TrEMBL record, chain A:
This is Transcription initiation factor TFIID subunit 6. Residues 517-532 have a biased composition (Pro residues). It is found in: Nucleus. The gene is TAF6. It comes from Branchiostoma lanceolatum. Its main location: nucleus.
Length: 679, 693
């Protein structure tokens, strides 16, 4: 008990205080007596202050509570000592002494007087929403996400199996008759009443949301699509709609493969990626629809109208990467996704009659499965494939389509096999040796392996100085591709419910950032899959006049900045996340604020400080920045880009290895691209 | 020894002669409920009177003193009595403290305490828990004796050794106590004052008491005996000793349990018959709406007939308290609310309410109070920056009255005069009210929605007009922070309570309180007017809930059981049940008819700041700063006790075993639930301020 009480004021402190007040020689006795009394008074006032905290209906004691407690005791309060959150004491230690001090900065009065007037803060406003409708909490942005991911998983099990832990607040009334049975099994986890598991009716809002999202995802407006994907990737509370979305993707792929509509297929794959990126969703139950769709996009014979011109390779790469991610995330002993997919791929490779594009897809798919798969399945095939490529490129029958395919296959093999070879093959690299081992591809491969080795050496060099985490990144780069946040840049402003892409209402845009200022601004870092991605992003919140905040969800979320537009908001937030720079991003190392004024509207964009190397690929308005922090130093432009790939995993996912050609932008795969190794 | 309550009152009113006389009148009535078991009423009164007189004299309040003397029919005190009483007052503190003077061997206190503790441990299981209650007060008073007699070291040792053994809910007081380390600090410490001047109340069965006496006889611990005699009041009852749950259910209050006789007075908790509003109403209806008139009239007559039939035997006579007369507007109001009530959704286990939540966004200053008008059309929020803001929750925007010259031109006979008085140009969604100089801790709308009361840290209660949005009256009297204020359901009267431990009853047209409810040992933190306007319930940080009779100012119920400060109260619509909750995160449900605890509802994880019964009383909603609204099935409790209404079991506080009453729990994103309110149609409204990050 007594150790919970505040430590006493020591006589020493009293002496120090006395000295600062100009009393030089305070007798020990007096100091001790004063210390004791000071302790008592302090504790008494603290206890009174707690009362004020309780009446202020807060959890935190504030400085104002102390002032009020002092007033209560007829003591003059400390004027001008106000702190919102933290009491601004600073700690310092040195020479065996520990000190807490209050840093009072000297303020130049002239600066304050001459400074422009601060912006008027937003007025207090009152906003209503439904916390519950007849005992059921609707999934709207204003409410917390209805079901945490773990519980979704639990809810995925058949009702009979779910021995739900009854909430600690008490158990659900046994056998709630009538209504409950109609709706399905009522469940209650951790005191939160869950929606019945079997409910498959979507609310009107959800239906609207579904329509908006799907229209935006396959529509023509890139900015709306980016927003919709962002919503899919970040919004909690979508789990009720996953069946719809997965069916949408599945059917969409089915139809568009037949029609060879490459753009739409790409859009659908991006949807899948967004859904996978959403950490609050549990996709496992819907893989039976999603995997065939993705596999189709990898392996289909024809994905576009003009195979000789269109870059369907990018789609295959992207889908292959998605599949690789899926295998890593969802493969288990029960569903065996990885081995089944691997089997499918190898079957195609063994089939001599298989189409070249399909072959490319299978190779890409295998390459994305990880090092072990590359080692055991791809490398033994190198010779065979090399011969095939040689035959196609130099063979008598000159077919441009086949030739491009061969080029792509070659590039793909070189890109993925070189790093693995560099690891498993002892040096030195001998051109001749490679030629005998790998046939036609040998010499090229050798060059790549040499580069890869150089890079690895550099990385190891760094790894000795940097942390172990960085080292692990080096070792298994592909595993580090996480379900990170999409780093797509959203350029234009459009609320999901507002069909116009250009903002009309906001007159002023302000920036608020939910993260603590201490953190560096958002970089698309590579978080390990286990840890949640820190959601550092910029939120651009428009501050319309208070009067425009009607009950419409879209506008009201704008004005009440905090409530609905926090990072964990559900369905229809209209927050703009900007995680990359506008303009040249490789430049400034400090956050910059750019303001544009197109037709009277003000955008404020913050550029990400680039502490490491950045590689950008300009694509019209949108840009993405690849931040490479710990590895890849000096390797940029040289070619082998393992490090970059791993560091910018999220981007690499979006991008394709064949980003050299400018056809990429026409494919609609927006986002950054890592530089492609030059062979 | 003077009754503590009186001393408290007197010290509080020190600034203002008129308040003191007000206090005196309040005092005279209040102790009746308290005393009961006191020693000698006439002697006590004499002592009190002398103390009050002395106080007045010391503060040079001659008029008040003379008035009191006249009233008490005492001779003019300039001569004889002054000498003796002066001695008494000058040594007032020391004399009370000297109760702790002890010649005994203080060093052996540890031994004594140990002996008592082991005796209790070894006693029969049946008595163990009742006797266990002894330990805490004995511990406290032993510690205080040690401190008073300047055995600081021993006191510290004693405290460290035994404080951990005390129950969890005592730790808060113990922490306060632990700061008191010297004799000098004992003066002026509120908790100390309470302990030394009041007796700690324990209830135990006769059997347990006998075993205690046997123990005391065997071991002649004189100090222990004197502590028991001086500072403890043991209320012995005949019957079976209570078990652990029963003891725990009612323990926890600062000064022990309620005395048995404190809850004996009959409480007229019923609702009075609705006044006959047939006749004027018809006229109003014809004026107001013409279309659905026949249908409505018929329904209304049915209802009025129904109401007339059930004359509640527990209802107070209508004339018990002079209530403001019903105006035509009030009657219209009643009819409208009744009409709304017809559309009410019945709530229960099967039908959970819909909750509409109002979030205050962009509030840079914390919101410390939220009030909603009875008809759910207005919302007032009090901020820590002293502002009060009023919003309209209905489509009707808030307008001010026209200025005087414009008003003069209006046709005062017009039917819609009230409507015409308002200036349409001033319509706004919200109005800001400036005036307080400290955080606003409570807001309360008058039933006619024309006035708003707010209370604040600055020690004042302010009355605002909602026609002009200006401050009408400042009620001064508390001098310390006023934690809560509430209008009576009929208007005109209101009650405020604050840090000075007194709840005051006011009339809106008077500067001075009409009644003072004195008896809490610590701050009065919350107030709830009984639906029939005859009683007032107060909750306090001394962890008790008290019920006061407005007629005579008596305390008619003392309910103990909370383990921390009470912060919110709610009456069931029928006036019989009271729900209370606060920092201890539990909702307790009380039966006012007998002052007994009915149920304990656990589930919140942070202090609870709002409670509300649904309009038909079957559901209780609670909300707190754990950002959750919880719905409780109180109907089940009422059904359980309906069978066991016999008086025999009442002496034993038997908790209704109801299992889990929780029906639903609804979490907000990051908004503490500061206010809950059921609309006439049983739509639950919640309100709070969004908390960033």
């Amino acid at each position: 008990m007594s150790d919970r009480v505040l430590p006493d004021v020591t006589a020493e402190s009293i002496k120090v205080i006395a000295e600062s007040a100009g009393i030089g020689q305070l007798p020990d006795e007096a100091a001790a007596a004063l210390a004791e009394d000071a302790t008592y008074r302090l504790k008494q006032i603290t206890q009174e202050a707690v009362k004020f905290m309780h009446h202020g209906k807060r959890r935190k004691l504030s400085t104002a509570d102390f002032d009020n407690a002092l007033k209560l005791k007829n003591v003059e309060p400390l004027y001008g000592f106000h702190a919102e959150e933290h009491i601004p004491f600073r700690f310092a230690s040195g020479g065996g002494r520990e000190l807490h001090f209050y840093e009072e900065k000297e303020v130049e009065l002239g600066d304050i007087i001459n400074a422009p007037l601060p912006r008027i803060p937003l007025d207090v406003n009152l906003k209503a929403h439904w916390l519950a409708i007849e005992g059921v909490q609707p999934s709207i942005p204003e409410n917390p996400p209805p079901v945490p991911k773990e519980d979704q998983h639990a809810a995925d099990r058949p009702p009979g199996v779910t021995a739900k832990p009854s909430g600690k607040d008490g158990t659900k009334p046994a056998g709630k008759p009538g209504k409950a049975e109609v709706k399905g099994l009522p469940s209650e986890v951790a005191g939160v009443k869950l929606k019945p598991v079997l409910t498959h009716e979507l609310s009107v809002e959800q239906q609207l949301y579904y329509r908006e999202i799907t229209e935006a995802c396959v529509g023509s407006c890139e900015s709306r699509r980016a927003e919709a994907l962002q919503s899919l990737a970040t919004d909690p509370g979508l789990h009720q709609m996953i069946p719809r979305f997965s069916t949408f993707v599945c059917e969409g792929v089915r139809v568009n493969v037949v029609q060879s509509n490459l753009a739409l297929l790409i859009y659908l794959m991006r949807m899948v990626k967004a859904l996978m990126d959403n950490t609050t969703l549990h996709l496992e139950k819907y893989l039976h629809e999603v995997i065939p769709a993705v596999a189709t996009c990898i392996l289909s014979k024809q994905l576009c109208q003009r195979p000789d011109v269109d870059n369907h390779w990018a789609l295959r790469d992207f889908a292959a990467r998605l599949m690789g991610n899926m295998c890593r995330n969802f493969s288990s002993n029960i569903n065996n996704i990885q081995s089944r997919m691997t089997k499918t791929y190898t079957k195609i490779l063994h089939d001599e009659q298989s189409h070249l594009a399909t072959r490319y897809g299978a190779l890409a798919g295998l390459a994305e499965m990880g090092h072990d798969v590359v080692k055991s399945l791809l490398i033994p095939k190198l010779k065979e494939e090399g011969e095939k490529v040689k035959m196609l490129m130099e063979g008598p029958v000159h077919n441009s389509v086949d030739k491009t395919a061969a080029e792509h296959i070659r590039a793909l093999l070189l890109k993925h096999c070189a790093p693995v070879l560099a690891k498993i093959r002892p040096g030195p690299d001998n051109q001749e040796q490679y030629k005998t081992d790998f046939g036609h591809l040998g010499p090229l491969l050798c060059a790549h392996v040499v580069k890869a080795r150089q890079q690895q050496q550099q990385q190891q060099l760094q790894a000795t100085t940097t942390t172990a985490a960085a080292a692990s990144v080096v070792q298994r780069p592909t595993l580090q591709i996480p379900q990170g946040r999409a780093s797509a840049v959203l350029s234009a402003m459009a609320a999901p419910r507002t069909p116009t892409p250009q903002p009309t209402t906001p007159s002023l845009l302000t920036i608020s950032r939910p993260s603590t200022p201490a953190n560096p601004p958002s970089t698309p870092t590579t978080p390990t899959p286990g840890t949640p991605n820190p959601q550092t992003k910029y939120i651009i919140v428009s501050t319309t006049k208070a009067s425009t905040s009607t009950t419409l969800p879209s506008t009201s979320t704008i004005s009440s900045s905090g409530l609905a537009s926090s990072s964990s908001s559900a369905a229809s937030t209209i927050v703009k996340f900007v995680s990359a720079a506008q303009g040249s991003a490789s430049g400034g190392s400090e956050p910059r604020v750019l303001a544009q004024l197109p037709s009277g509207q003000k955008y404020v964009v913050v550029s990400v400080p680039s502490s490491g190397q950045t590689t950008t690929t300009s694509q019209g308005k949108t840009q993405a920045v690849v931040m490479v922090k710990s590895e890849g130093q000096g390797s940029q432009g040289q070619g082998s880009n393992t490090g970059i790939t791993s560091a910018a995993g999220t981007l690499a996912q979006l991008a394709t290895s064949s980003s050299q050609d400018s056809t990429k932008s026409s494919t609609g795969l927006q986002g950054g691209a890592t530089p492609k190794p030059n062979s | 020894m003077a009754d503590p309550n009186r001393t408290v009152v007197v010290t509080d009113g020190s600034n203002d002669a008129s308040t003191v006389s007000g206090a005196a009148t309040g005092v005279q009535s209040s102790p009746k409920g308290e005393k009961g078991a006191g020693t000698d009423p006439s002697k006590m009164d004499q002592q009190t009177l002398a103390a009050v007189l002395q106080f007045l004299k010391n503060n040079k309040l001659k008029d008040a003193e003379a008035a009191l003397r006249r009233e008490a029919k005492l001779p003019d005190g300039n001569g004889d009595s002054s000498g003796s009483s002066r001695v008494a007052t000058s040594g007032e503190v020391s004399s009370v403290l000297s109760a702790y003077e002890s010649e005994g061997d203080l060093a052996r206190y540890c031994e004594y305490y140990n002996s008592l503790s082991s005796f209790i441990e070894s006693s029969l299981d049946a008595h163990k828990h009742e006797l266990g209650c002894l330990l805490y007060p004995v511990f406290i008073h032993m510690y205080l004796q040690l401190v008073y007699n300047r055995h600081e070291k021993e006191a510290h040792k004693f405290f460290n050794r035994f404080s951990v053994e005390q129950e969890d809910w005592h730790q808060e007081d113990l922490r306060t106590l632990s700061t008191v380390k010297t004799r000098e600090q004992m003066e002026g410490n509120d908790l100390m004052d309470t302990f030394r001047s009041s007796k700690f109340v324990l209830r135990m069965s006769r059997d347990s008491y006998q075993s205690l006496r046997r123990y005391l006889k065997q071991n002649e611990h004189r100090e222990l005996l004197s502590i028991l005699q001086d500072h403890l009041f043991i209320d012995v009852f005949d019957g079976v000793p209570r078990n652990r749950e029963q003891v725990q259910a009612t323990s926890g209050a600062m000064m022990g349990e309620a005395r048995r006789d404190a809850n004996k007075v009959k409480v007229l908790y019923g609702l009075p018959k609705e006044p006959d509003i047939n006749v004027p109403l018809d006229d109003d209806d014809e004026g107001a709406e013409g279309e659905d008139k026949p249908k409505k009239k018929k329904q209304k007559k049915d209802l009025l007939l129904n109401k007339n039939k059930k004359a509640d035997p527990n209802a107070p006579p209508p004339s018990r308290i002079p209530l403001p007369e019903l105006k035509d507007a009030d009657k219209l109001e009643k009819v409208l609310s009744w009409k709304e009530g017809l559309k009410r959704v019945p709530l229960g286990r099967e039908n959970l309410p819909s909750i509409c939540f109002y979030t205050l966004a962009n509030a840079y200053q914390n919101v410390s109070a939220v009030g909603v008008s009875e008809d759910s059309s207005l919302l007032a929020a009090g901020f820590e920056d002293s502002n009060v803001r009023v919003w309209s929750l209905s489509p009707q925007r808030l307008r001010t009255m026209r200025n005087a010259s414009e008003l003069d031109q209006l046709d005062k006979e017009a039917d819609d005069i009230v409507e015409r008085m308002m200036d349409e140009k001033t319509a706004a969604d919200s109005w800001l009210l400036h005036g307080h100089t400290g955080p606003v801790y409570a807001t309360s709308f008058s039933p006619d929605r024309e006035q708003l009361l707010t209370s604040s840290e600055d020690g004042t209660v302010r009355l605002w007009s909602l026609h002009t949005y200006s401050n009408l009256v400042v009620y001064k009297g508390h001098n310390y922070p006023v934690w809560d204020v509430q209008f009576s359901p009929t208007g005109y009267y209101f009650v405020s309570g604050g840090h000075d431990r007194v709840a005051r009853l006011w009339g809106t047209d008077q500067f001075q309180p009409i009644r003072m409810f004195v008896g809490h040992y610590s701050d009065v933190t919350c107030i709830q007017y009984h639906p029939n306007s005859n009683y007032v319930a107060t909750g306090s940080s001394d962890r008790t809930v008290r019920l006061w009779d407005v007629l005579n100012g008596n305390c008619v119920r003392v309910m103990t059981g909370h383990k921390a400060a009470v912060h919110t109260l709610a009456w069931s619509p029928d006036g019989r049940y009271l729900a209370s909750a606060g920092v201890d995160k539990n909702v307790l449900l009380w039966d006012i008819a007998y002052g007994r605890l009915l149920a304990e509802m656990k589930g919140h994880t942070d202090p609870i700041y709002s409670l509300c019964f649904s309009r038909e009383g079957s559901i209780l909603a609670s909300g707190g700063i754990d950002n959750t609204v919880k719905i409780w099935d109180v109907q089940k409790v009422f059904e359980e006790i309906a069978g066991s209404d016999d008086l025999t079991s009442l002496d034993r506080a038997s908790l209704v075993e109801v299992g889990s009453l929780l029906l639903g729990s609804f979490q907000t994103k990051a908004t503490p639930v500061l206010k809950l309110h059921f609309s006439h149609r049983n739509l639950l409204l919640g309100c709070g301020r969004y908390q960033h990050s």
